[in-house]
# Entry
Amino acid sequence: MVDCIERFSLMQEGQLGRPERFFPLFSSVNSLAGVGPKATVGFKNLGVTRVRDLLFFLPLGGIKRLKEKDLESKYLPSTITIEITVKSYRQTKRSNPIRVLVTSSKFKLELVFFHARLDWIKSVLPIDEKRVISGKVEVFSTGLQMVHPDYIVKSSDINLIPDFEPIYSLSKGITQKFMIKTIAQALDKNIPFQEWIHKSILQKFRWPDFSSALSMVHNPKHIREIRPNSLARERLAFDELFAQQISLALARMHFRRTRGVSIVGSGFLIKKLREKLAFTLTSAQEEAISEINGDLGSKLRMNRLLQGDVGSGKTIVALISMLTVVEFGGQAALLAPTEILAKQHYEAITTITNELNISVTLLTGRDKGKLRGSKLAEIRSGSAQIIIGTHALFQESVGYQNLVFAVIDEQHRFGVQQRMNLVKKGINVDVLVMTATPIPRSLSLTYYGDMDISILYEKPENRKPVKTAVMSESKIEGIFDRLEISLNDGRRVYWVCPLIEDSEVLRLTSAELRRRSLKERFPQQNIGLIHGQMSSEDKDATMHKFSTGEINLLVSTTVIEVGVDVPSASIMIVEAAERFGLAQLHQLRGRVGRGTEQSSCILIYSGKLAKTSKARLEILRDTEDGFEISEADLRIRGAGDVLGLQQSGLPKFLIADLATQNHLLEIARDDSRKLLKSDPRLITTRGAAVRDLLYLMDMQGSFAFIQVG
Ligand code: ADP
Ligand code: MG
# Structure
């Protein structure tokens, strides 16, 4: 299975036949004049190693240099360009700065130079002569001051000083001026490009061509031209998104190649199951099932994502799809990230299917010896029809008779290789991945652009909303009091400890401390602790005790068991909730509200919260719609942080901002699919231009997906 992460590493790989005319852009920055070893290191720290990287290193802001005649003192402090007459020099000690008094028609100004030599000062600023200087003027009680003017020129050269200048982020050894000069050299390479954007899109947005856009973003005339919605920036953002969508579309084409078999069932098992089912499926479930069945029946390979919030009922959708496979005579595998989840699926599925007379097998790492041997034999002979399990499912020793369908639950918990290993157990296996992480539409286009997506957009009607409160840590005594009443009432409670970055040890300590303090406070209660360093047997045992009620208050480190179902748990308490992402909190809250009781969730924040952080938590209080929450999370935190995708190795965009430019993403997606439909091998004139774009964006690896012959 071709997966996002794998794709992106492919795309970043190698020089793969890059056309020769691009060589100047892809040579090292030290090929540019003035870039020595020190500057090379400085650039590297900014993520810039090649000339091409400089082109896409966009300014963060800009400064306007006010001309003195436009200047009113109320604008100070600001950056100004001004003609002055040099009056006198002053330096009290050799180690002290040199101060130069200058005057203009409006101002008296002191220029300050640290570590400068007096003879140099005398040569650039001779007494009684006029010069034009430009720099930042600051107001002190002693008067106006400018430290190290950015420019000092003869009055006739005033045009050498720009009115507006871009500001770049810098690092050691790289000054603004040097950056500007070096980028100008990169722009001078001036390689001609054929237009890769479709004419109609270009005209609609009135975008400049690629080279002009680059030149405009680096030579802004006004702060407006720095903003993401400036025409030049928007165009470059589109280029970036378009390149990415093209490579996703290529991957999709590659994956969906014909496999020649369609999987169609008699409907017999499904009919029986539906008759037995205690509830009616939601329309969203029905739609997803028919989309998946459509894929199974098609001769193209399935690569579908089933997205549905916690509790939206993904399992039954997966089961019904697997039954089609069983009716057809093939094997279906359901892969879960943990033993607890695998077991839970096994129990749920065997309960629902117990009258269907089909064979469901559970295989986990815990199966050893003879039992394991007999399970492996069932799987190999094909007598096991639905196989549920963990990583054990794709170990080398496991062979399948006729695996045609793989369902992968909580797909983000699996590495690419692991998923590949399962899919390789059959031939052209259809793949359905499931995720409970609601992803904003804009992000799913980016991350799953090559998959078809089914969304469970509604929850079963019998769900009771979870009451959510946002409370300060200072009210913790009150929370304890209420908790005591609930515990005595027989309620089961999760207590989640603060998210501590990168340290399982610290996490454990904080959870251990909280368990102890709760034990002191509630000596009568049975308090358990679950954390990431426990063996899976111990975790299982603890979760089991919690589900039977032997433990009624479960302290845990962060999101250890996404997807765990203990319907009788009805209270979720999260400490230092402000440290969590909204999507994460939403996941945690999804652990309750699964049973018949009214459930509640208390989000405790520590200390004094900034208004925005509180507003963030209040979003959770106000809605339970995972998509709404993830959209809000995206707006507030930006794409990289949503769902912790930062760590996931998925692509980051240099220019495009998904929070504000997702309208471009949809256009890029539609147009890339359209283009590849008419020119799947990118051989037309526009196709060749698009290849250039992919080279420029370092995505030439996806050419590997273009079918040859
Ligand atoms: P998730 O999408 O989080 O994996 P599950 O598949 O575990 O959700 O479903 C959660 C619970 O809802 C299960 O107990 C399941 O039997 C039940 N369920 C699923 N679909 C429906 C429905 N249409 N009506 C009522 N209950 C349902
Ligand atoms: Mg689930």
